[in-house]
Amino acid sequence: MSVAPVSLRLRLYQILFDQNTRSGRRIEALCGFFALFSVVIIFIESGVDSHYHLSFDQWHTFIYLELLITLVFTVEYVLRVLCWPQPAKYVFSFWGIIDLVTVLPLYVLWLWPEIGVNYVFAWRALRTIRVLRVLKLLRYMSSLRIFWLAIVSARHQLMVFYFLIAIVMVVFGALMYGIEGPENGFVTLGASVYWAVVTATTVGYGDITPHTPVGRMMASMLILIGYSVIAIPTGLITTHMSNEYQTRRNARICPNCRHTGHDKGARFCNACGTELQSVEAR
């Protein structure tokens, strides 16, 4: 392989994947803007179509905009696949799948035109998934990165918590199914567990309600349980976020006196005044 294609491929890789370069961040921001622009167009299209019957020319305006957005995302996706060292690994990665989803809607319409006629709502929903592309921009926010690390760190406690909550929901759903029965709306175990989840989260849609005194007592107990445990996930995540913040502060060590505990934006050591290494440089 000649030097020119290799250098071009490396340059494309830096532009499309290197988050530490200005060009890489600009390309990611531009793609995020197109994703948001596409979602806004979908909302406008669905809103206008629900109040006014769009003419053939008006529909073509939205189709042309969709064609432009799809063209941009298609070129970007193809370039990403070509410049990645292992294309198959990128295609089946999490971000690769999100990039592919942003490209697919118009091609799906071309392959199955009846979707645009009989299932236009489904096609709009598929296009709206492009909003996931904005998640890529969130990688540049350090606070969100800490939040994500806190969730990963607390994943085992959260899994145990939700597993126990699921058991409680099944138990209460089964009890209400036996107490109230189908004549009061608890027609199946699934519907009863659904009622338990809605009640424990204090949403209370009101589509299923207990009518017997014992059933109302059970509902009251479940509401109190919901209020008692709803703060547990928040407390777990907050604790791990605090630990992550403290770990990052301790990681900024003064090269002169080895003092730790500096704030994120600190430029000089608060003990000896020596200039600190920036977070980006680390």
From TrEMBL:
Membrane topology (UniProt): Multi-pass membrane protein
Subcellular localization: Membrane
Keyword annotations from UniProtKB, A to Z: Ion channel, Ion transport, Membrane, Potassium, Potassium channel, Potassium transport, Transmembrane, Transmembrane helix, Transport, Voltage-gated channel
Domain Ion transport: 33-248
Signal peptide: none
A Pfam family this chain is assigned to: Ion_trans
UniProt-listed InterPro entries: Ion_trans_dom (IPR005821), VG_K_chnl (IPR028325), Volt_channel_dom_sf (IPR027359)
TM helices/strands, residue ranges: 29-47, 59-79, 91-112, 159-179, 185-205, 217-237
SUPFAM superfamilies the UniProt entry points to: Voltage-gated potassium channels
Family matches, as PANTHER family: POTASSIUM VOLTAGE-GATED CHANNEL PROTEIN SHAB, VOLTAGE-GATED POTASSIUM CHANNEL
This protein's name: Ion transporter
